[in-house]
Amino acid sequence: MSLDLPESAVPPPAGSDESSSAPTRRTFIATSTAVGGAVVAGGVIAGTFLADPEEASAAGAAPSSRVSLTVNGTRRTVTVDNRTSLLDLLREHLELTGSKKGCNAGACGACTVLVDGHRVNSCLTLAVRLEGAEVTTVEGLAKGDRLHPLQQAFIDEDAFQCGYCTPGQIMSGVGCIQEGHTGSAEEIREWMSGNICRCGCYVKIVRAVEQTADRK
Ligand code: FES
Ligand code: FES
Question: Right CATH number for 141-216 from 1.10.1040.10, 1.10.150.120, 3.90.1150.200, 3.10.290.10?
């Protein structure tokens, strides 16, 4: 079978500038990898094949990688387009739709989850960077039928209206409490300021976080 390699997928001749040991975009690592009949060339990051987006797209294939991570205590291994955000991995690949897509640009906090115990905007986090990571989403907070204390406090304090921001607020609140930034209502407001509530439930959200922190 003859393969029409794109010019950029052909290794440079020995002795040419491009054959030096310095890695370049055109470095040919994968000799020829057929993906859906197309040939892609790429590099290796953390043991995972990572195709060059431009070359792969020129060859008509979306560059993809396999990533293994733990989500809410369960090990998951998925193959995703390299451009996939953690939010899309959760919602589109793992069917965990609790984390919400608001702005998809890091401005609203609706997508907040914990990665290795730290709050992150999952819409801005590349899934392929999370090999071996521990991810906790709002679906992972309750223990069976028993809600996490902050989930219960949101109900007790009536800290939501439409509820769209609520999963992100709760995950951010859990992080805020773990970090110890709950010394006052002002401190909670400051450390939760990345989470926007269009319904304006801020007073009750802060109260729910305070109440949960006090019970710790
Ligand atoms: Fe991620 Fe808005 S959806 S910050
Ligand atoms: Fe509606 Fe916060 S409860 S956006």
Answer: 1.10.150.120
For residue 197, how far is its CA from the centre of ligand 1 (angstroms)? 12
**Per-residue model confidence as pLDDT tens digits over 144-174:** 999 999 999 999 999 999 999 999 999 999 9
Number of residues that make up the chain: 216
Cα(126) to ligand 1 centroid in Å equals 13
Cβ–ligand 1 contact at 111 (below 6 Å): yes
Q: CATH 3.10.20.30 in the chain, residues?
A: 59-140
Q: Which residues contact 172 (CB under 8 A, 6 or more apart)?
A: 109, 112, 119, 192, 194, 195
Give residue 216's pLDDT: 73
Find out whether the beta carbon of 108 lies less than 6 Å from any atom of ligand 1: yes
- Ligand 2 centroid to residue 201 C-alpha, Å: 7
Ligand 2 center to 202 CA (angstroms)? 9
Q: How many CA atoms lie within 13 A of 46 on its CB side?
A: 10
CATH hierarchy code of domain 59-140: 3.10.20.30
Beta-strand relationship, 74-81 and 38-40: unpaired
Ligand 1 atom with least separation from CA of 87: 1
Q: Is the CB of 164 under 6 A from ligand 1?
A: no
